[in-house]
Amino acid sequence: MKHHSLFKYLAPIGVIAAGIISAHAEEKPIIHDGEFEFVKKQHAQKWAAQDKEIEAKLANIREKNDGKRPNILYVLIDDVSFGQMGNRAMNYVMGIKTPSINKFANEGMSLMRMYTEPSCTPTRAAFLTGRYAVRSGIKEVKVALVGEGLPENEVTIAEVLKQAGYNTAHVGKWHQGDIEQAYPHNQGFDYAVFPLHQQVQLSLMTKECADANNMFGFAPHTQTSEFDLDSKFRPTGLVTGVEAVAGGKAKEVDLQPGEEWTQDHYVKMNYRYQKQTLDQLDKLAKEDKPFFLQYWPLWPLNFVNDGEENTTLNGGFHAEKLQKIDDFLGEIFTKVDELGISDNTIVVLMADNGLMYHYAGTSGLSELIYRGGKTNHLEGGVRVDAFVRWPGVVEAGSAAGDMVFVSDLFTTFARVAQATDYIPRDRVIDGIDQTALLLEGEHNGRRDYVYIYENDLLRSVVKNEFKMHLPAPGVPGAAAPVYNLYRDPREENSHIGMALWSGASFQDMVKRHMMTIKKYPHNKLGKGAPYEGIENLRPESIEAVKTFTSWQ
Amino acid sequence: MKHHSLFKYLAPIGVIAAGIISAHAEEKPIIHDGEFEFVKKQHAQKWAAQDKEIEAKLANIREKNDGKRPNILYVLIDDVSFGQMGNRAMNYVMGIKTPSINKFANEGMSLMRMYTEPSCTPTRAAFLTGRYAVRSGIKEVKVALVGEGLPENEVTIAEVLKQAGYNTAHVGKWHQGDIEQAYPHNQGFDYAVFPLHQQVQLSLMTKECADANNMFGFAPHTQTSEFDLDSKFRPTGLVTGVEAVAGGKAKEVDLQPGEEWTQDHYVKMNYRYQKQTLDQLDKLAKEDKPFFLQYWPLWPLNFVNDGEENTTLNGGFHAEKLQKIDDFLGEIFTKVDELGISDNTIVVLMADNGLMYHYAGTSGLSELIYRGGKTNHLEGGVRVDAFVRWPGVVEAGSAAGDMVFVSDLFTTFARVAQATDYIPRDRVIDGIDQTALLLEGEHNGRRDYVYIYENDLLRSVVKNEFKMHLPAPGVPGAAAPVYNLYRDPREENSHIGMALWSGASFQDMVKRHMMTIKKYPHNKLGKGAPYEGIENLRPESIEAVKTFTSWQ
Q: Which residues does the UniProt record annotate as the domain Sulfatase N-terminal (chains A, B) (predicted)?
């Protein structure tokens, strides 16, 4: 047993530029991770036979819909751990009511073991590219100017579907960076309305939050900064919400020059994205082409009372807004029904990672079931509620305990949209085609493992019920804690008796993963000047960029 | 603020003998705790009006059933925390399947906030007597000989219902002591089959568990005892399962003289109680009188593999048996249907306290949602799943977030059985009549508080969403941690901002409780020679009693 041998792989791998997009690369197989190939070899015949049945089923579904491929509506909620959506008992535990989400959950399949990355940017990148975020060079993106983002040579699901003839639209949180190549309308979306940054700026960096002491150090009126030399250390002049269409420039719409961002702006922004999603549904439903629409709301993140009367027993800032999101989603689902497109629309609702436990208390949401939350590799950080509704295709009221990773949606959406040929063949695609799971139900999943990263650091490896936390550098592999997730969902007892001996099998998995990386090295994070491609930059934003680049 | 004043009440109160049973004490009101009277005063008119409606409804239900009052089947599961029964998502978390329990849960009302005492004996006593166990002098009953138990002058729900004309039967765990007055057939049950002690003896003190090192120190073959002077410190000769009818003697049925207790005996005992419950249903359903049948299974407690092939993903000893209990309950519910008595039978299914986390790991069950488990006052110790099915009366698929304490079932069962007059009027009854909640649904509960004891020590006071942990003796009341249970279900953050200021209101609640105790002091624990009233004591049991009493 060579316990030490695997740890040399754990340092960030040298970044090598990835290849270009190879469109319509039929016949060439999708390149998957070593572990998937290892599992596939064990099921090759069965899966090949099943794939033929699935093709026939999909053709049959299209036939029923006059040849139109299914629309896809992808709703991604921010920072809500497993159990916090779609479960009546947990509603009672938290003192909130989410009847629309619960009803929706019962209309389709509950994916009981959906894994994400542990933070917003990586999960969204993993979905968009079908690849662990680390492969795109993507890490958590900070609140203020970074001059970084999703590289242009990554191929997003929007690009894949657009090439295959879909209309594509994005509404809400984006969080893939502040450089032009990273903007959604430059990454495959025909239409995009989104905040340039994320909710720390939008929901926390307000006068109201400073007054409530929920964001200290930012607002000059709550404390003096008499010794400051660097007036930009406390971010100012950040671009807020922008709107754009593919091929065009972005336009900031939420703030006028000289105007101060407030909680009221944030509330209005949330309502606006809701309205724009409804508007998009109205518009897209009428088109001949099928659509891919993603709605990524900003709520439940919220950190101060906004004057609306609370309606939950909980009263916490996030809990209140999670209930509000339920109202919003109720409207969305009703709209889909009213437009008569329910039967030919796949709706996926899920969260992007575990709860933002850093505000436990006032947020009203705290650890529930799994331990941990946003930013960490424990199940509480990466296990989320996920529901798929596709009436007449995905069994209503069903559930599946098969493992799914968020990037599997990339490959699965491509499959059901007949767009698989547009998936690039020059890079590793982590997304596994889970169409069989959706169409044939539980036990037809094709994944039994997931690697969990915190940014570019591999922190855990999950296989079936077992999860190994990688030991710190220098610590022998024999000391790696292994948990049985059914027996110990909170990952608290790693005694040897709790799981398979952690040695050979997990080491082999790490090796297969690292050797695949060696063969197909990670892409480089996109870099550029922040805020390019915005046509109406406010003077304070221009000033912010100028200062940001002044040291170089 | 007199923070210190309340703590003088916290020492165990001097025990004073309680009065005798005052049968048929109509007109005299039931004596409730001060806190209930305090709440009642705030709702007197509304409740009085509602009670009239409820009387009419109950009369109407009887009329529909040819004047027969409803049967009551009370199923009490051992050591399973909230969320571990009746919830599909949690099934997936734990890697088990409980379709029968989940189906049953959806056929009635889910009581989402059922509180118990934190251990088996106190919870069962609180149910049987309608009183906090501490009022009966009851504490946790140890595994071996104790010469203690439920006092004869306590009035159990079986006695109340029997006086009102019900047939009464008990099958399974009893755990109310090893003295004759405490036996179920001497506490109101016409028929009783039960183990004299509890599952530590039955499931842990076996050769198999000793070999597996799950119960060390007990079996001589797994370690020497060369320095022992006291051969009875390691219990031997304990009575196992007995059977009896009211007025008769108990007869041991599970073990022959000289025979050693084994895992196989335990398995058989579980199957036997299941069969006897089914037999009782067959028998009781045919009678003119309505019945009260309690089935208190021994499983899921189990600590070693019994040779049956495991069928769960979890594979843990308790997890496996929880799934087995699901099979058992499926049979029971089917039987109730087949007998044609479903519509006039109230079935309550719940657990007696939180999980036995002491065996987390091999048991397969660990903390889930709430923190803590059996033996402690945290929500994980005292919050359990509870479901009430009464077709046509209790709304199918409904849920209620109102607080309920296990003793409320005493008073509520008496009410629906028209047996309220037999509830004694000379002592405090903690059980609150929750018939309105069952018949009128959520928000019609009449409890917004509960006191949580660990044995005779008051450890927590709950009011609505707030929970105060009592500070240790000598610690100022201002330091008492208070939690908001919706925002912080795991009771981890007691910062002042998380809950109402802990001062006056909680202190008042403790005072009202203690002043009620002062007026109606606690009963004395029943005492006597162990094993009296057993007609076929084995020689080894006689020897055990002889040694037990030899020091006096």
A: 70-417
